Amino acid sequence: MKIAFVGKGGSGKTTLSSLFVRHLVATGAPVLAIDADINQHLGAALGLGEAEAAALPAMGEQLPLIKNHLRGANPRIASAETMIKTTPPGEGSRLVRVREPNPVYDACARPVELDGGAVRLMVTGPFTDADLGVACYHSKTGAVELLLNHLVDGRDEYVVVDMTAGSDSFASGMFTRFDITFLVAEPTRKGVSVYRQYKEYARDFGIVLQVVGNKVQGQEDLDFLRAEVGDDLLVTVGHSDWVRAMEKGRPPRFELLEDVNRRALRKLRVAADATYEMRDWERYTRQMVHFHLKNAEAWGNERTGADLAAQVDPGYVLGESVAAPA
């Protein structure tokens, strides 16, 4: 399952996504975790030291390698240089699987040891001095979107993406790349404002959206969230001594996480797994093409000097059974 964690800055989405990753790994599930936030904190939340987290390879810096690998033998793509963040796969493209070894993982992913196993972690990379004042953050997350367009995951395989804060992901088509989106919301007016934006923007795209109430301290907070988000409220999370210790760099064994929070994580997994039967690969591919054509017309054709609409393979549908060249 492809799972996104979104929310306003400071809502706790990175903490919740890291806890969910730990929960999945502890059950033996294969997990690919991706930090697509401008503030790169997922590595630290998964237990990496400051120097280790800073040393993670940035996907944005490996974009030529990623493009060359994914292009494969697709005859509709003249060169890797004409690929943009929305380029869809077609006959001859190389696809990426959660469990496989491949050059993209070799260059961009690193294993992070957790209780009960390891997670494969990838990061977009932070802004550099050269980016400041001249680059949009979507130039960084474009590598993630391109990867997700070519990624095929099956039952009991998980891709967990810690998204950029707020509703910023709607500046691209990446918000449609997930089976389920968990929106982390605090019980405040600002906390639910991102929910309203997400709900409105996602309305026409079949997005499965569930709210995780965070920093909930009592019945008044719970009542507020229920009144604001209704049936989209899936579960709430309160104070955690385990999380506080983790944030100080001294996480206890994961099995010592409070029972109430362990139950909340199990509920998230049940909700994610339930979306497997709802998968519609034709709609998924159609939305991919929709955003590619929009980006091609808006800026891609001019930037690459090519007609990027020609990259669309009209008979191609991405899916678990699709074969791809080695």
TrEMBL record:
Q: Which InterPro entries match?
A: CobQ/CobB/MinD/ParA_Nub-bd_dom, P-loop_NTPase, ParA/MinD_ATPase
- From the UniProt record, list the coiled-coil ranges: none
The question of whether Nucleotide-binding is a record keyword is answered with yes
**Which GO BP terms sit in this record?**
negative regulation of cell division
Superkingdom, natural source? Bacteria
Sequence ranges assigned to domain CobQ/CobB/MinD/ParA nucleotide binding in this UniProt record: 7-219
Keyword ATP-binding belongs to the record: yes
Q: Please list the GO terms describing molecular function.
A: ATP binding; ATP hydrolysis activity
Keyword list (alphabetical) reads: ATP-binding, Nucleotide-binding
Under the cellular component aspect of Gene Ontology, which terms does the record hold?
cytoplasmic side of plasma membrane; cytosol
- Record-given protein name: ATP-binding protein
Q: What is the species listed in this Swiss-Prot or TrEMBL entry?
A: Streptomyces shenzhenensis
